[in-house]
Design brief:
five-stranded mixed beta sheet, Alpha-Beta Plaits, 39% strand, alpha+beta, 5 strands
Length: 90
């Protein structure tokens, strides 16, 4: 199991159902974690699951839902001792 954190910045990622769509896609890939809006207009996604599931979610994050415009996805360091029971949005 791997835990990775992605920040989706630039483009249009708030107000386009990005977090809710991410939660649904995460379920498709058996990935747990969270998606939250940040004050600077970006979205932070923490993904925990199999390496292949997290990689598939990352591929989707680089495109996002239909109304989103994703220009950049950065991976940021995160503690690997986090444990999730679900995928939450906040």
């Amino acid at each position: 199991m791997v835990t990775r954190c992605f920040k989706i910045t630039l483009g249009k990622v708030q107000g386009v159902f990005f977090r809710d769509s991410t939660k649904r896609k995460a379920a498709d890939f058996d990935v747990l974690g969270s998606a939250i809006n940040l004050a600077n207009g970006s979205v932070e996604v923490i993904a925990q699951g199999s390496e292949s599931g997290v990689n598939e979610l990352l591929k989707w994050l680089q495109v996002g839902p239909e109304m989103a415009v994703v220009e950049r996805v950065d991976e940021v360091a995160i503690s690997d001792d986090l444990e999730f029971n679900d995928f939450t949005i906040g």
